[in-house]
Amino acid sequence: MFTRLFGFSRRSFASLSEQEVLALAISSEEDDGRIYRAYAEGLRDDYPASAAVFDEMAEEEDRHRAALIELHRARFGERIPLIRREHVRGYYERKPDWLVRPLGLETVRAQAEAMEAQAHRFYLEAAKRTSDAATRKLLGDLAAAEKGHESLARRLSDRHLGEDVRSEEDATARRQFILTYVQPGLAGLMDGSVSTLAPIFAAAFATGDTWQTFLVGLAASLGAGISMGFTEVASDDGVISGRGSPIKRGLATGIMTTVGGLGHALPYLIPDFWTATTVAVVVVFIELWAIAYIQNRFMETPWNRAIFQVVLGGALVFAAGMLIGNA
Questions:
Q1: Which residues contact 276 (CB under 8 A, 6 or more apart)?
Q2: How is the chain split into domains, by residue range?
Q3: Phi, psi of 12 (to 5 degrees)
Q4: What is the pLDDT of residues 116-135, one digit of tens each?
């Protein structure tokens, strides 16, 4: 177990024979082709033009693999040793596509360029380790090809994606980000910041006890976060609305609701009542301005309307809490 944990069961790259280096290159090109095809399938419904980019990149990896197999057949015969990335210590790894879903455009474009850069360095090192002229030539050619392909995703994008298509896909990606994260998170922040004002400040002015006020705020924030999170998950599975994963939306809503409430509950950890209340009021002011900024930045709500809605609503709830607390 400990040998596997610390990587002692892996071979070092320096210990590989020329045949094993070729086998590693073959399996690596095969894996990269699969990854690019998975990217293409993950993007095809929403971003068909970008999917075509990764289809072509997968075909490029297939050509590299075929050339390597032909060289291996000529030098070592038909049997290719089974050696993969995870068998070599210090060798670069690939993150499976299912770990990076949902597939964002910028994520897969950056991943593709990183993959090609890593492959370039591998072929340079592999070429240094062979004395066979044909092998050295092919590995050197592949290193040069991968170096040129570091910008392959960008260059293929230029071929498949015109400015109009790229702008449309980027707008679709932004819209999906807003629907999945920003909108639920904003709803949670508004609920947590505004709805907890009344119970927290009512408790503060009713008891004059900062610790008790903090406990009320903590309970209200956590309760609201859990409630809002589960409500968001249950309200829409995202299939018809296109709002994305309900789990992600629920987490965004629940976490931001809790954060919004805790923002003005935490100051009541300060023992002095009026100091704690002053800090809490300042935090509330910052929270309300943050909500107005997010509405303007992502939801394109005009500043004057965003400020009016948020500040007026917050002021009314704050006043209700003070009145109830002093009753």
A1: 204, 210, 213, 267, 268, 269, 270
A2: 2-161, 176-325
A3: -80, 150
A4: 778 888 888 888 888 888 88
